[in-house]
Amino acid sequence: MIALTPVGVVRGGRGVVVDDYWGDSRATIELADHVPTESLDGIEAFSHAEIIFFFDRLDDTSIVTGARHPRGNTAWPRVGIFAQRGKARPNRLGATIVQIEKRDGRTLHVRGLDAIDGTPVVDIKPVFAEFLPREPVRQPAWSHELMRDYWKREG
Amino acid sequence: MIALTPVGVVRGGRGVVVDDYWGDSRATIELADHVPTESLDGIEAFSHAEIIFFFDRLDDTSIVTGARHPRGNTAWPRVGIFAQRGKARPNRLGATIVQIEKRDGRTLHVRGLDAIDGTPVVDIKPVFAEFLPREPVRQPAWSHELMRDYWKREG
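^ Those are the sequences you sent over. The predicted structure of the assembly is below.
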């Protein structure tokens, strides 16, 4: 077993769990009390960061360890939980690349974070272009269909 | 506190911790006994996956929670641990995008995983192009210099 301690928490953003329309999402990450302020020094030199967070609102009984249709949509193939990005997964970790808007002391302002208010953050990593895929990305049609409205704006 | 259970382990690859020359790195991820085989079904439709793993060889005393020069190199600025990707970080999580070479039952063959033999894996997420940066990536000069030999081949 591995024990993690949150290093921060998501504030603002959306208050409820929804699948789509994260395009307008602005939120802040507030450092936890035990983390020094200087842990964020220099982060504004990066345009993007990856936020690793914990889906704390999910209870254990909803976790899928095998396979399922993504979003329960039977028009899409039944695939393993490690072939999809749904949140009801073992260890309940999310990992999302966000735009860094501003760093203000112990607060990081971000855009495009698909985590709701109060979500515990377990890591913040700056995005290096050298760690992005260095070859063309191939993915199945269902995954493009699933993402169709994900980054759209609400309303 | 958040408790994670490894879902797999890294096999093969390199046996020792080094900073650079990961270009030849081929490894497998073997599912843990409690994880069903079908959790990997359909993953071969994706070219890349992000592996989230735990730097288990690091002891607690080496963790940096504030700021330091990346790799101890004073030619580079002293920046916060969340403005660098070094492994001696709070919660000791690594997150690396790899190429998927083959899935064989409970084994995933990958390329470009910068984790050593025996490293616990806590999540496997398929790479969706829609979750990569949708804007140009900006990063400081030191981070490009640090990555200069990272993906080169050994020797």
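Residues 8-146 of chain A form a domain with the Elongation Factor Tu (Ef-tu); domain 3 fold (CATH 2.40.30.70). The mean pLDDT of chain A is 93.

Shout if you want it in another format.
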